[in-house]
Amino acid sequence: MIEIMKAASEPRKPGYDLDREGQYFEEQLTLIRRLAVAYNRRELDDLHLFLAEDVEYHSQLTQDPVIGKEAVLAHIQERFDISKQGVQDVYAEIGFCQSEWGSVRLFGYDGQPCMLLSTCYGCTPIGLFTVDSQSALITSIEVWVSILDPEKAERTGEYPE
Asked: Do 133 and 139 contact (CB within 8 A), yes or no?
């Protein structure tokens, strides 16, 4: 019994059995990992290869979306530049959405792969990113800070590098 409890409390390792299935789920998980690698390295590297030309970046923190691959890449680069200046370090962890918001369940998000952003390893997440995709390309990046509560997401302990 103690071993079962210990295993349940330990972070999952990359390559773990997700007990989830479906090509769309696997595609989203792969794309979330690509996004997390970029955030953890604070480098765009090959992220452009995984963005649709008409990708949209939405955030609860801003009123207007950023639209188009070049504009989204420039927006993300601005965030990386701020982080590199030592204003705020960020760490991207793979997680899974828990979609309860008060008494409302946001169908379509429960169990969806997400990226959790925090200011140190293992710290309480301050942001949660989800992606929509089509044909193995990210079509939309959504940044959540409250409706999909980052603190309620299932954490894995996986910080892709």
From this structure: yes
Do 35 and 57 meet the contact criterion of CB atoms below 8 Å apart? no
* pLDDT tens-digit map of 24-43: 899 999 999 999 999 999 99
Cα 8 to chain centroid distance, Å, stands at: 22
- Measure CA 39 to chain center: 10
Bridge partners for 144 per DSSP: 128
95-98, long-range: CB within 8 Å, 24+ apart, which pairs?
A: 95/125, 95/128, 95/153, 95/154, 95/155, 95/156, 96/153, 96/154, 96/156, 97/128, 97/130, 97/148, 97/153, 97/154, 98/149, 98/152, 98/153, 98/154
Total-model pTM: 0.82
| Pair of tokens at residue 25 | 């789920």
